[in-house]
Amino acid sequence: MKPLDKVEGQALSLPDSDVDTDIIYPARFLLITERQGLGRYAFHDRRDAPGFPIRPDEDSAPPFLIAGPNFGCGSSREQAPWALDGLGIRVIVAESFGEIFYSNCFKNGMLPIRFNMATVTMLHECAIAGNSFAVDLERQQLHVQGMRPLTFDIAAGNREALLNGWSEIARIRALHTDDILHFETAQRAAAPWLWQGKQA
Amino acid sequence: MPRTLYDKLWDAHVVLNDANGRSLLYVDRHLLHEVSTPQSFEMLRQEGLAVRRPDTQLAVADHSVPTHDRGQPIEDPRAAAQVSLLEKNCEDFGIEYLSLTGDDQGIVHVIGPEQGFTLPGVTLVCGDSHSSTHGAFGALAFGIGASECGIVMGTQTLWQTRAKTLRVTFDGMVQRGVCAKDMALALIGRIGAAGAAGYAIEFAGDTVRTLSMEGRMTLCNMAIEAGSRTGLVAPDEITFAYVQQRPRAPKGAMWDRAIAYWRALPSDAGARFDREIRIDAAAIAPQVTFGTSPDQVLSIDQLVPADAAATRTLDYMGIEPGSAIAGLAIDHAFIGSCTNGRIEDLRAAAAIARGKQVAPGVRALVVPGSGAVKRQAESEGLDQLFLAAGFEWRDPGCSLCVAMNDDRLPNGARCASTSNRNFEGRQGAGARTHLMSPAMVAAAAITGRIVDIRTMPA
């Protein structure tokens, strides 16, 4: 996974609430079995709408997206973060996120940040005004032109994974294989019916 | 200290806790489908890994499969390739695959329980947000992304943060024509589409205790539409009766051991929940969504809001602000999905459709949730009943709930649907979805309008 430490650039403003992953990545494109090159499908059916910040022919966007509450709710499809990543979006700020989307971001070198509604409203204004944005994950700060630095919360495990670009699967295997074996031995004794494979 | 069902499930699966409040959770069961796993298998290949425990995995194709002419080659080359890829991946990695043409194929969340793959007390995941369905058995079940599917296959674990707990208690006897779907929609309407974000929901109360497993699955299925990844119902005799004798359920002495363990799972008396909600089930009227988020929902006798906040939504939905939801003309009806594609759902719809005709100009589809549901319905004559009434009788799959196959609605179509999401474009670009119960959809198909089921002759 590509690491994320510092990101600088401009921001898109998309203030609608409950933007679900079907809007971010319409289901019919789920027939594609690759994860690269999906940026052109991001918000595919919304781009014609008046005032939508991404035009139908665009395949890149600024690295920051300021979104509305409950962004990424609905389907678990990881094509949603993949498509946003395909546009070049690395940091998404919202009051709240769909939980599975939020978790998927960290698996793909993307940083979702939660701020309260008042702060997000100001960030929308800054995005529309074309102010520059910069994130410093090490210090957990967002710097926006014309605002005081904002400090954000992030779970330590997610922060470390992003900073180092760790592959979670390799890391669990390297660090915890013995723990897993230990658990399995105990479960085999306590709940043997889970270890029978397919029943005859 | 008294513990909740969620606490017990969680505690029993912690491999280790880190210093920052995360737990490495052991995963007992993984369901796979063709859409969310191609990239997961690719991950394993790139890292040169095998699947750690193939015996805990079960795969089936459901999302992109056609629901007609089963056995013929799939017409859409991309869907055909996606299904073949799942077959190949399962073969390469030693995972059991339930063939598209076999008896057991169906929607992941319908076949898991049918097969006895879903059991009380397990952790179960799937690359699908409606994995919350399996919580109806007292299993800790939640949806994950494709990367996490790869992590589960490669390590049998996931790093997770414990959720807060929310108990939703339904009391009282529901009115005639009201079912679990209405209970779910009423809850979502009350707390909002993100209302339970960060919480694991336990559904409790005497109304829930009397629900069948099918009803409980409908309720837990919709937990994600309230923002929660996890819905739970404590296992009881109804659960055990459903699970016993399922093909993959424990047998004999193992069954006795398992059931003793499962009986200890329900939340202890005095267990503390972070939040509590009580709902008078007797006061719930049939529910219908009017907008593009599941929390935009009304009782059938209510008016659509007239405030400016709903303008964009109502514009998309083609509905006049302040109008009645009842009486709105539909042109499509869909009965099926992991929410309402089980035998009890088809029976409820059939009871309304019996001896009637689908209204002129309405196209109505019945898509059983699995091969087993389809065969059961056919043995009861429900297929003939639906066909005689002018419904189409299809093969199992997700169909019009996700519209990835050729079941797709045209721009501007209005559909009464038993599915779980009324999102913009969910049933086809520009299509308009009204979520409701199976009986309500059948009634809408017959009358050509959204109608109060309570006013239909019994």
> Hey, roughly how much beta strand do the residues of chain A contain?
15-25%
Shape of chain B: globular
Which segments of chain B are poorly predicted (pLDDT under 50) over 5 or more consecutive residues? Answer: none
Main β-sheet of chain A: number of strands, strand sense, barrel status?
Answer: 4 strands, antiparallel
Proportion of β residues of chain B?
Answer: 15-25%
- In total, the number of strands of chain A is 8
| Count of structural domains of chain A | 2
**Rg from Cα of chain B:** 21 Å
User: What is the mean pLDDT of chain B?
Assistant: 97
The CATH fourth-level homologous superfamily of the largest domain in chain A = Aconitase, domain 4
Helix content of chain B: 25-40%
Protein structure class of chain B: alpha/beta
Q: Which chains share the greatest interface?
A: A-B, 56 and 80 residues
Question: What is the C-level CATH assignment of the largest domain in chain A?
Answer: Alpha Beta
Q: N-to-C SSE series of chain A?
A: EEHEHEHEHEEEHH
CATH topological fold name of the largest domain in chain B: Aconitase, domain 3
What is the total number of structural domains of chain B?
3
Number of helices of chain B: 16
Query: DSSP helix count of chain A?
Result: 6
